[in-house]
Amino acid sequence: xxxxxxxxxxxxxxxxxxxxxxxxxxxxxxxxxxxxxxxxxxxxxxxxxxxxxxxxxxxxxxxxxxxxxxxxxxxxxxxxxxxxxxxxxxxxxxxxxxxxxxxxxxxxxxxxxxxxxxxxxxxxxxxxxxxxxxxxxxxxxxxxxxxxxxxxxxxxxxxxxxxxxxxxxxxxxxxxxxxxxxxxxxxxxxxxxxxxxxxxxxxxxxxxxxxxxxxxxxxxxxxxxxxxxxxxxxxxxxxxxxxxxxxxxxxxxxxxxxxxxxxxxxxxxxxxxxxxxxxxxxxxxxxxxxxxxxxxxxxxxx
Length: 302
Ligand code: HMG
Ligand code: MG
Prior knowledge:
By secondary structure, the protein is an alpha/beta fold. An eight-stranded parallel beta sheet has the order 1-10-9-8-5-4-3-2. A two-stranded antiparallel ribbon has the order 6-7. β3, α4 and β4 form a beta-alpha-beta unit. The chain binds 3-hydroxy-3-methylglutaryl-coenzyme A and magnesium ion (MG). The site of magnesium ion has 6 residues, from loops. 3-hydroxy-3-methylglutaryl-coenzyme A binds next to α4, α5 and β5.
């Protein structure tokens, strides 16, 4: 066990969390959510994506959100860019970090970004070059590293293969995602071990969806490997339109509660985070997906 003493959480609620919402969420609400998240102490926020509005209508207001929010010094704002067109649009809005995203499964790559894994890497070459030339940090996201909605189980060798491609591409950090939340601790560790063949411990993060209720256990399992960076989504928002039935990421509130309970620092104020989650849940008209938030909110009422 090599538990870290501090963990960095990347809040992906505004992007991963909201991209799947059927009803349009006003840009003003997304902006207010970002403001509340940074007030709660989140230092890295994945704000939006510059993808086709035909594919993901909910992210069509990317420019409005990025230009309308008030940036806080010390906070880094990241956005997804699947191709050069997306990157060029994103550049106008000055993100601190861009994310290129590929899949360990061929079928998911086709469904999500309409190309093969190899083609996606080719598409990313000019994006990564342009971003690095502009001094923008480049993160890679790897989907379906444990299981795929179309292909079933994904072997760690395929994750290692994709991680190698990402490394060659010049990606500075890579996120290892369980897109459909089917992973269990050992399998999730195996996907991370495969990634660590190509990336240092300081350059990897876990991104776990909670469809089968395993995300917190998977987070702990990977934490025990020394991994200290994780994506999480306030109120457990989210899912991916190309992974039907998959629910949101592990709730940020639940991860913070667990970490603080273990004496691990996050720099996040749990009460303010719960307020941010309550705000967005109210806007969406449904209860928070965070067990911790529900417990704390019920206690506050009592
Ligand atoms: P395509 O149709 O193959 O692209 O889509 P194309 O190059 O053939 O262009 C077709 C049309 O799209 C053209 O417009 C382009 O201008 C436009 P038209 O001439 O028909 O009017 N277009 C764009 N518009 C805006 N922004 C762009 C862009 N690129 C082309 N960047 C594409 C390829 C990748 C664009 C498409 O498949 C797409 O947008 N997919 C969305 C993927 C997505 O956002 N998925 C969810 C995020 S990934 C995720 O959630 C997983 C993650 O959380 C980790 C995990 O959990 O696994 C990260
Ligand atoms: Mg995701």
